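Researcher: Going back to the complex we discussed earlier. I've cleaned up the inputs and rechecked each line, so this should be the final set. Can you rerun the prediction on the complete assembly and write out the structure?
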Amino acid sequence: MEAGGSLSAGRVAVAGVGMHPWGKWGNNFVSYGVVAARAALADAGIEWTDVQFIAGGETVRNGYPGYVAGATFAQALGWSGAQVATCYAACASGAQAIDVARARILAGLCDVALVVGSDTTPRGFLAPSGGERRTDLDWLRFRLVGATNPTYFALYARRRMELYGETEADWAQVKVKNARHGLNNPNARYRKEVSADEVLASAMVSDPLRLLQICTTSDGAAAVVLTSLEYAKRHGVPDPVKVAAVSTVTPTYPQTAIEMPYLSTDSAAAVAPPERLFRDAIAHAALEEAGIGPEDLSLAEVYDLSTALELDWYENIGLCKEGEAARLLHDGDTTLGGRVPVNPSGGLACFGEAVPAQAIAQVCEVTWQLRGQAEGRQVANANVGLTINQGLFGHGSSVICVR
Amino acid sequence: MPEAPSITPAPAVDGWFTTGADPHLIGVRCPACGTYAFPPEIFSCPNPRCGSSDLERVALSRRGRVWSFSVNHYAAPPPALSPEPFEPYAVAAVELPEERIVVLGRVADGVALDELQIGSEMEIVVEPIIPGADELVWKWKPVGA
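Model: Rerun complete. Updated structure for the full complex:
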C-alpha cells in the first residue's frame, strides 16, 4: 500500500538488511557490526565505498570504541570518506540512527546510507557504568532503591493484574507464542518451544515476573542500507520496501507513568495528564506520519522486555482497547496466522536485548516480512509493518515500513 | 592507614529527605504554576509552559497510596547494596495525593511482603539502605504496620 500521511512517507527505500546472529559469543562488538553491515550491503547489492553516510547506534558498555560507534564501524569497514553520525538513545539508539540517515536522504544530502547497531552484554541484569556517580539517576536507582530493569517491568505487570485481572498464566502465553514464532529464525538465539508450565515453573525474579517472563541480554548486531527511492529504482529495484514513518517523540508533560530510570513521575497537581501518555504517543506519531491507522498493520515487532509489556504495546499501538490485550492474545489475533501477528521474529523472547542493535533488527524483520522472505515465520500478504520500542530517559522509537 | 572510626549513618544523598521523628521527602514547588517535582535538583519548573526558575523547596506529603510494587528475588548488581545472605526485598511506587506524583522507594525492613497491596496506604520512614549500611534512604512502610 502507499502510505501518504506526509511528504516524507515512502520516499526512502530499505535497500538492504542484515544481521549477526544473536547469542553470547564473547567477541568484540565491532566484529558483529561488520558482519551485519556486510550482509546488509550484499543484500542491497551496494558497495561499501558507494555509501555516502554511515550512522552507528552506540552503546555505553564497551568503553571508548562504543562511544564512537559510527566511526568505529567505518574504520572497520575501511575508511571511505563517508559522512558519519553516532546516536545514543539507549534502546532507541538504532531507531534514532535510522531517523538521522533517513533525514539526510530526505534532505537530499545523500542517496545511500548505512545504519549499524551492535552490542555485547554481560550476563545477568543490565547495570549502570562503574564509579560512584551520585548525580546520575541510573546509578541512584540501583544504589538507593535497588530498582533493576525487571523491577520496573514488574511494576507495570502488577498494574495489569490489578486493573484487568490478568494472571501470570495469561502472560506465559506470550512467551509460548514468541518461542514458537522464533523456531525457524536463523538469527534467533533461542529456537526451542517453551510450554506455559515451564514459564510458570521458572524462578521468580521480580514478582510477579519470572525468569521466562523477562527477556535476557545478548550479543548481536543488525544493519540496514537506506537509499532514496530514485536511487533504488535506478539500481533495478522498482518496488522496494519503503520507510513510511519514524517516530522519535519525547513524553509530554506531565508523564504520569513511572519510567526507567526515574525515581518519580511528573506531578499532575497543576497540569492535567496529556491526552496520550508516552508509549501511546510513540505509536500515534508514527501512524500519523504514515497516514494510516492500527487497523492497517499487517504485523508489529514490539519490545517484549517482559511478556506483560508486550500486552501493553498492543494497547499503546491501538491493536485493541485498553485492558483487552490478553483477549487479543488468547483469540490468536497476534499469533502467526492471526489478524495482526506480533513479534513474528520471535521478539526479544528469542533474541534477548542487544541494546543499540534491536531497533534496527526489528526493521530487518519487517523488511523480510514485507518482501515475503521470512521463511518459516512468514506473515501472509504482509504489506505494512510497525516496529516500536522506547529508550531510557524518554526516547520514543517506532518505524513503519510499507511495500 | 589507621582504622576508620565507626560512622553514624548519613543520608545517601543530600537534600532529598529529612531524618528524625517524622521524616519527609523534600521536593520543589513552583510558586508560579503550582506544580511539584521530586527529586528537588532541577534547573527550572518542569512544566514546559511555565519554565520559572524560582522554585521553592517544600516538604512533600508523608503518606500516599501504592500505585504498584515488586518483590525482587535476586540481588541487584552494584552499585546496589545487598545483605549477605540475600533476602528478597520489595520496591513500591507510591502516589502522593496532594502532589499527584508517584515516588519509587524500597519497602521498609521487616514488612511482610506478601501483605503488600496496590491502593494501600504507606508512609515514609528513613532507614539504612540495608541493615548495617552507613547510608540512609527513604523507604515506604504500610501505615499501622
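Model: Worth noting: The two ends of chain B are 44 Å apart (CA to CA).
Researcher: Good, that matches what I expected from the previous run.
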